[in-house]
Recover the amino acids of this structure.
């Protein structure tokens, strides 16, 4: 019997740290004359994923200076998430009031082990 520890670890972690977020798919259009981009919101759906907010940071890599994300979302490989999607995270503050924060997905990376994709990581920024 073979146990694939990578799939068990990430699946378990995503399940244990899951939060419900609202994902709004976005359609991007570019103006023919101006070249301006317009983002139009679609219909929101709820998704589950491990969502981690963190402070903004910069790191020096050999390619140059890179900005860290405001948050990172890890989802199972079956969850649909795309660049420019809007994520809304709602949580309770210290007074037990609902607080919502909107994030824009900057980059989505599918994480494989061999040829099998186990999870996706999305870098997100506050909007």
């Amino acid at each position: 019997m073979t146990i694939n520890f990578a799939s068990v670890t990430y699946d378990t972690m995503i399940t244990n740290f899951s939060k419900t977020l609202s994902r709004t798919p976005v359609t991007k259009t570019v103006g023919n004359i101006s070249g301006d981009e317009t983002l139009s919101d679609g219909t929101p759906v709820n998704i589950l994923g491990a969502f981690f907010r963190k402070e903004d940071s910069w790191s020096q890599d050999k390619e140059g200076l890179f900005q860290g994300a405001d948050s990172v979302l890890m989802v199972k490989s079956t969850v649909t998430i795309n660049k420019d999607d809007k994520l809304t995270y709602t949580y309770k503050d210290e007074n037990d009031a609902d607080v919502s924060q909107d994030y824009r997905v900057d980059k989505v990376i599918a994480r494989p082990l061999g040829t099998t994709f186990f999870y996706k990581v999305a870098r997100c920024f506050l909007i």
